[in-house]
Amino acid sequence: MALSDSLANYFEFEEHGTDLRTEVLAGLTTFLTMSYIVVVNPSILAGIPGEKPGITVPGYSLPEVQSMLAVVTIIAAATATLIMAFYANRPFGQAPGLGLNAFFAFTVVGALGIPWQTALAAVVVEGIVFIVLTAVGAREYVIRAFPEPVKFAVGTGIGLFLAIIGLQAMGIVVDDPATLVQLGAVASDPVAIVSVVGLLFTFALYARGIRGSIVIGIVATAVLGWVVANAGVVGSEAAGRLVAGGPSATYDITPLAGAFLDGLADIEAFTFALVVFTFFFVDFFDTAGTLTGVSQIAGFLDEDGNLPDIDRPLMADAVGTTVGGMLGTSTVTTYIESAAGVEEGGRTGMTALVVALLFLASLAVVPLAAAIPLYASHIALVVIGVVMLGNVVDIAWDDLSYAIPAGMTILVMPLTYSIATGIAAGIVTYPIVKAARGEWGDVRPGHWALAGAFVLYYVVRTNTLA
């Protein structure tokens, strides 16, 4: 039997009304739209001592750490997507998610001061919890345990969070002692000028529907920065900021692999539990929402609007997260960019298989991750952040018992630089507003328990900080 026939039988092409050529093109399309994560994830997770929180490894340069993280990103993405292909037989691509990688670096390692090894341990624990809950079929129970307006608001809040991080790295938004933030020197700072040009170029490509527009925009911006730095039109200090630190790279991930075990040695239980909770909350609902949204485009949903056998793709996500955390990267999630491949006709796990194989092939360009300067890679955060703002339309703004918790989640998340604090604001607000309106039937004991736990945590934490 020919290979094409074997693939057709295994992935059930005929039942799904597709063929090998369509699936391959769909997989290529999905990969092109989400491949930016190979460059962006390392730039977010890698730390710069004294400048940026994140993962730092003594004895290794920033480019070397970034290349390690690129390798781990690729392995985690390929692992999860292969499981999606062969176990779930769905056309969804997976990789470490934007938002939770920023939470990992800027909030957990930065604001909370937790060692990055312990943060990886939290990712692994979250993945294991996800696996167990998925295996026992507890998805419906988990969904009922969290307030609906908070679930709908998280995506928009994360979008704003990502956008602010990106705009800061690009020098477009800077800090100010009087107003907290203000517009940067966009007419005189070479980094800001190149960033604005690159961002507008990327937006134009994205609006045109160009495949791989974000990757093209990132690379084009980095090239423009290199040209400006070497054209003799800026000073040496500015030229140094326009280019990455150096071409050094490594494929050796042993400093990261297994580091989570060291992180389990000394943890503060309450804070660790909050980090695990946040990773799980965002991962679970982001994945479930993405699966449902993309499945609607593909026509996978049943008459009740549910995705049959959703536990299978959820398991792929959970296993990918666990493996990724063990190797050294943040939480894996299903990418909304999978919709691009579905719109090209992808209907089976063959699409996901192509995505996974292309991720493995991208190991050849790992040095590129270390050669892209921070401002160029963070263009992706602003573009995706803007796209994520569209989630706000799902919120019932005409119902104050929904609008207030959702609004608090969206506002608090970027302003406190913490996804966890934004979620906490929504969860605490929800039962109070519902009770004030006399809508006791909508409030479950779990809502009050979560709200009380968050209040207790932040009372203890803010008193400690004071």
TrEMBL record:
Membrane-spanning ranges: 24-48, 68-88, 95-114, 120-138, 150-174, 180-207, 214-236, 256-282, 352-372, 378-397, 409-433, 445-460
Signal peptide: none
Cellular localization per UniProt: Cell membrane
Molecular function terms from GO: purine nucleobase transmembrane transporter activity
InterPro entries: Azg-like, Azg-like_bact_archaea, NCS2
Keyword Protein transport part of the UniProt annotation: no
Membrane topology reported for the UniProt record: Multi-pass membrane protein
Superkingdom per UniProt: Archaea
GO terms for cellular component: plasma membrane
Primary site of residence: membrane
Keywords noted in UniProt: Cell membrane, Membrane, Transmembrane, Transmembrane helix, Transport
Family from the record: Belongs to the nucleobase:cation symporter-2 (NCS2) (TC 2.A.40) family. Azg-like subfamily.
Protein name listed in UniProt: NCS2 family permease
Organism: Haloplanus rallus
